[in-house]
Amino acid sequence: PRNVTKNAQGVLTVAGVEVTKLAEEFGTPAYVVDEDDFRARCREFRDAFEGWKVYYAAKAFLCGAVVRWVDEEGLYLDVCTGGELAAALRAGFPTERIKLHGNNKSVAELTRAIDVGVGRIVIDSYDEIDRLCKVAADRGVRASVLVRVKVGVEAHTHEYIATAHEDQKFGFSLAGGEAADVIARVLDEPALELKGLHSHIGSQIFDTQAFEVAARRVIGLHAEVRAKHGVTLPELCLGGGFGIAYTTKDDPAPPAQLATELAAIVEHECRAFGVQVPTMSIEPGRAIAGPAVFTLYEVGTVKVVELDAGASRTYVAVDGGMSDNIRPALYDADYSCTLASRRSDAPPVLSRVVGKHCEAGDIVVKDEFLPGDVRAGDLLAVPATGAYCRSMASNYNHVPRPPVVAVRDGAARLIVRRETEEDLLRLDVW
Ligand code: LLP
């Protein structure tokens, strides 16, 4: 996060609060969010993408406080399940600014969305058209929908988080006319009001070129709809997926640059297809939440493992792991980390930070140079854990999920409490 520095004693401070104090008060592991940083990232997207609707993708990191921040900073909200919708509703997010995603929404989810009046529902299957028509007709309302299009782009990212190539579950294929067919059907349904098209090509993407190809194809379809049906769809969403820096190897574009590039692409493609630029939207999750959070761990033990040829590797075990950050195990994701509780002049050694789970793949940071005297009781901070860490956390090995602590202006407050042993056992039927 931005408001993080190390003081003369080598103690990491966030918004003026020392992490040693945070560890004392809230325990470890803990997710620590720099509230001003999170809010500033919301505003940067909002201001850079002037005239566009910016939906925060709740799946990246969601809790009541975050929903309120997103609301206060004037963003829209993208949810993709009934559970995410429930969190948004509980926090009082204005429903007309909510968009509901999901490739397999249930009747219950659609019904709730209609009943509370969410602003947009993104259609992702033929079954959903039938379901939604029935729900909307039963209620006597017209549902405002977007159609999710699979544009056939191979985004350069991990296979599991790429979503626009043909062989995956999301959206209707452009190739072979599936998307065009769905659009014709939706236009024909009195219970549905087609607001526009939607494309999301994947996540942790750095090259704007992938967005360019996606924009060209989806705007091409938009133009086709006008030519064929005489309907000018008012909106177009390009999805999320903007990459962030996890280690120094990554070099993301700031929102202002992204906005300039995407606006130029959209204008160019609209001109080429002879259509007006629709109301545009995006759905960043990671780029807002990711960099604003770090995870604070305490070291429990250090083990030096001899490798071949006289080499060795230092394993630094912390009090969390794959239950609070599954990303290294799931996507081979890289993180960095720093000694956060003291200064050390010991020469750095190549270390692997691991968790406390019963798997060898329970890695937090694969390779990091840490001072050679790191020992039990030290605090380590792993930056950029705001997106898809807490939201994908599990209770593997019956480990309680860590709390989320928000720090702002020299004060820390709990926004999600730590799970207790009681929480872990409460679903068992004894
Ligand atoms: N819009 C849609 C339709 C999405 O499916 C997603 C992410 C987003 C927006 C937000 O993407 P973002 O800006 O956060 O990249 N668990 C994976 C990421 C999965 C992303 C799923 N969809 C990870 O940890 O990398």
TrEMBL record:
User: PANTHER family annotated for this entry?
Assistant: DIAMINOPIMELATE DECARBOXYLASE (PTHR43727), GROUP IV DECARBOXYLASE (PTHR43727:SF2)
- UniProt KW keywords: Amino-acid biosynthesis, Decarboxylase, Lyase, Lysine biosynthesis, Pyridoxal phosphate
Originating species: Thermasporomyces composti
Lineage, opening ranks: Bacteria, Bacillati, Actinomycetota, Actinomycetes, Propionibacteriales
Q: Which HAMAP family match?
A: LysA
Catalytic activity annotated for this protein? meso-2,6-diaminopimelate + H(+) = L-lysine + CO2
**Binding-site list for substrate:** 286, 327, 331, 359, 388
Q: How does it assemble?
A: Homodimer.
- CDD domains linked: PLPDE_III_DapDC
The answer to whether the entry has keyword Amino-acid biosynthesis is: yes
Q: Enumerate the InterPro entries for this protein.
A: Ala_racemase/Decarboxylase_C, DAP_deCOOHase_LysA, De-COase2_N, De-COase2_pyr-phos_BS, Orn/DAP/Arg_de-COase, PLP-binding_barrel
Give the GO molecular function terms.
Answer: diaminopimelate decarboxylase activity; pyridoxal phosphate binding
Protein name (record)? Diaminopimelate decarboxylase
Presence of the UniProt keyword Lyase in the record: yes
Which residues does this entry mark as bearing N6-(pyridoxal phosphate)lysine? 59
Q: What does this protein do?
A: Specifically catalyzes the decarboxylation of meso-diaminopimelate (meso-DAP) to L-lysine.
Look up the record and give one Gene Ontology term from the biological process aspect: lysine biosynthetic process via diaminopimelate
Q: Where is the Orn/DAP/Arg decarboxylase 2 N-terminal domain?
A: 36-289
The family note in this entry says: Belongs to the Orn/Lys/Arg decarboxylase class-II family. LysA subfamily.
Q: In which pathway does it act?
A: Amino-acid biosynthesis; L-lysine biosynthesis via DAP pathway; L-lysine from DL-2,6-diaminopimelate: step 1/1
Instruction: Note the NCBIfam families from the entry.
Output: lysA (TIGR01048)
Cofactor field: pyridoxal 5'-phosphate
